[in-house]
Specification:
46% of the residues lie in helices and 13% in strands. The chain contains ten helices and eight strands. It has a six-stranded mixed beta sheet with strand order 3-2-1-4-6-5, with helices on both faces. Strands 7-8 form a two-stranded antiparallel sheet.
Length: 276
């Protein structure tokens, strides 16, 4: 099958088979959280995984049907991928007819010998490079491929491991790059639906391209991590309460400050005794 035929087949699957579970949820997030405005120039950030590549295809569909003018750039940052991982990303971009701009950094090399929280440092550095590249390309927003499951896992991780209540926001203003925003248009899409889309179209993406774990880069092994612990925990809770995932998601939309001991607003901590 030629690349153009494969790309059209993938696009048809989004419009037909996965219209309800993927396309409708993608557009719902954009509308509900007002993620895109007229005149935006958005850098769609592609890591090489299933989530960001699907996001790229969804933006292409959105551009075909957009009701107001906005522009999109598809960017890939190579933080020091192995040759095999870099070639896999390039192959998928060509196969799916996604016109990517690839730029390089030395992030993997910079954090390779960091012992304390290398993943956190790597993520922060990657985002900075993406903002910088997007700004140089005239963009005012970057789009990341975090999905619904990332959101609920983040909520539980914050509570259980950090002792705080917070969520992964659907959009954020950058604190270091004036005029730049981060948006997450996959916010309402379930990860299982993304996996079904990938498998239905017989596609292979990077699972984990980090230098620390390159042995799992082109297969579906998942790292043993706190996030995986949370995934398993949610899976077990769902056996008892099928609504648990939706309840976790909704919990940060239904915060009752009258029943909260303390909270922060604009980095200032407030206590219920202030107005008791």
């Amino acid at each position: 099958m030629q690349n153009s035929d494969k790309a059209k087949e993938v696009e048809r699957s989004i419009n037909k088979r996965f219209h309800k579970g993927i396309w409708s949820r993608f557009t719902a997030a954009i509308n509900d959280y007002e993620l895109i405005q007229e005149g935006d120039r958005i850098a769609v950030c592609i890591s090489g995984g299933k989530d960001s590549m699907l996001m790229a295809k969804l933006f292409q569909e959105l551009k075909r049907h957009n009701k107001f003018p906005f522009e999109v750039e598809y960017i890939v940052m190579d933080p020091g991928y192995s040759r095999a991982n870099r070639e896999q990303i390039e192959y998928n971009a060509k196969l799916l007819n996604v016109p990517v701009t690839i730029f390089e950094s030395n992030i993997f090399e910079s954090v390779f010998h960091v012992e304390k929280s290398p993943c956190y440092l790597c993520a922060r550095m990657r985002r900075g490079y993406l903002y910088n590249q997007a700004k140089m390309m005239g963009c005012n927003k970057i789009a990341l491929g975090h999905h619904y499951d990332d959101v609920i896992e983040t909520i539980l991780m914050s509570m259980l491991y950090a002792g705080q209540v917070q969520t992964m926001m659907p959009k954020l203003h950058s604190t270091n790059f004036d005029g730049m925003e981060l948006i997450r248009p996959m916010y309402l899409i379930r990860e299982d639906e993304i996996k079904r889309w990938r498998d239905y179209n017989d596609l292979t993406f990077l699972q984990c391209a980090c230098k620390f774990t390159e042995n799992c880069a082109v297969n579906e092994k998942e790292n043993l991590s706190k996030r995986l612990e949370i995934k398993n925990m949610i899976r077990e809770m769902k056996k008892i309460n099928p609504q648990v995932e939706n309840n976790i998601f909704k919990s940060v939309e239904n915060v009752n400050l009258d029943t909260v001991i303390a909270y922060k607003k604009n980095s200032v901590k407030h206590n219920f005794l202030e107005c008791y």
